[in-house]
Amino acid sequence: MELLVGAHINVFTGEWTQKDAGIGTSIDSLYVEVNMDSAAIVWPLFNSLQAFWPGLQVLARDIDPAIRTHAAFFSVWKRYGFTPEGFNLAALSVQHGLKWYPLRPELIESTY
């Protein structure tokens, strides 16, 4: 069972100020961002920073899920020739308004 941990907590009160959990910038529990209380998907996007996850899964000996996760990231890379900053899983398209940043080694690191 995974523990969902939100992105931000008030260190003075101990209250969660942002209950979204996921991997990528500022948070690191699941593949897409979900609510830590209900596990409902709140942000159906992945970003290029999250491509480190398959490599971490391999290190944790979680091989079959790592293969599936890596294949998902790689299929987006093959389609666009790069890993976009944001990819909408619901629409299966690059997230509008986000610019591409070419210095993202996460997918290459996971591949290695």
TrEMBL record:
<dbReference type="InterPro" id="IPR044674">
    <property type="entry name" value="EDEM1/2/3"/>
</dbReference>
<keyword id="KW-0256">Endoplasmic reticulum</keyword>
<keyword id="KW-0325">Glycoprotein</keyword>
<dbReference type="Pfam" id="PF01532">
    <property type="entry name" value="Glyco_hydro_47"/>
</dbReference>
<dbReference type="InterPro" id="IPR036026">
    <property type="entry name" value="Seven-hairpin_glycosidases"/>
</dbReference>
<dbReference type="InterPro" id="IPR001382">
    <property type="entry name" value="Glyco_hydro_47"/>
</dbReference>
<dbReference type="InterPro" id="IPR012341">
    <property type="entry name" value="6hp_glycosidase-like_sf"/>
</dbReference>
<dbReference type="GO" id="GO:1904380">
    <property type="term" value="P:endoplasmic reticulum mannose trimming"/>
</dbReference>
<dbReference type="GO" id="GO:0004571">
    <property type="term" value="F:mannosyl-oligosaccharide 1,2-alpha-mannosidase activity"/>
</dbReference>
<comment type="similarity">
    <text>Belongs to the glycosyl hydrolase 47 family.</text>
</comment>
<dbReference type="GO" id="GO:0005975">
    <property type="term" value="P:carbohydrate metabolic process"/>
</dbReference>
<dbReference type="GO" id="GO:0005509">
    <property type="term" value="F:calcium ion binding"/>
</dbReference>
<protein>
    <submittedName>
        <fullName>Tetratricopeptide repeat-like superfamily protein isoform 1</fullName>
    </submittedName>
</protein>
<dbReference type="GO" id="GO:0016020">
    <property type="term" value="C:membrane"/>
</dbReference>
<dbReference type="GO" id="GO:0044322">
    <property type="term" value="C:endoplasmic reticulum quality control compartment"/>
</dbReference>
